Amino acid sequence: MRAVVLTGQGRAFCSGGDVKDIIGELFARDMQGLVDFTRMTGALIRNMRALRRPIVAAVNGTCVGAGAVMALAADFRVAADTAKFGFIFPKVGLCGADMGAAYLLPRLIGLARASELLFLGDIVLAEEAHRIGLVSKVVPQAECLAAGTKLAERLASGPAFAHSMTKQMLESEVGMTLDQAIEAEAQAQAICMQHPDFRAAYDAWVKKEPTMFAGSNRPFSAKP
After folding, report:
1. Between vectors from CA 218 to CA 216 and to CA 224, what angle results, nearest 5°?
2. How far is residue 179's CA from residue 176's CA, in Å, rounded to a whole number?
3. Each residue of 168-211: pLDDT tens digit?
4. Has residue 174 been placed in a domain?
5. pTM assigned to the model
6. Residue 20 resides in a domain
């Protein structure tokens, strides 16, 4: 596995927890039971961010609640023109900061806009999501999965080891000073320079040939 595509079936990406079977069941739990549940849902996001392979969310429709946080946890978001996003937790009396939303969302769209969405729970349509940086691309609904898959295939043809290092650095550098980040990147890049992919790219450049990175079944393209 060199890249992952996450999408939904039918007209929705994910509309969050089922009102009857999931939300309704929570009223029977005590405090420890509730914490067990919220930690379990948060573990999904933690695992997505810990996965050292790029994840592309092909958001094919409604993407609210837990689904919206899952899209945030992906590394790339391609949205259908029919998609709509909403961190709707406050509409049901819950904190807008759920499953890591208050950590991830400000990093994408800034604190002011993230605060607006997490406090108010407003629905954001696809074009607006693109305008504020929540998604990187909007395509017709019928093309959403294909567009997400094409992006994942391009990532998969790239240097998997270096991509895993990039994801690690993006995650680790959040709490670093600039000096610490520069040092961490210096060490990370030196490690990548020892990987066979670095030599393969150099040799391909000298020969003016496409680069075939280790483990890939197709040459890497520098163009979309």
Report:
1. 110
2. 8
3. 999 999 999 999 999 999 999 999 999 999 999 999 999 999 99
4. yes
5. 0.91
6. yes
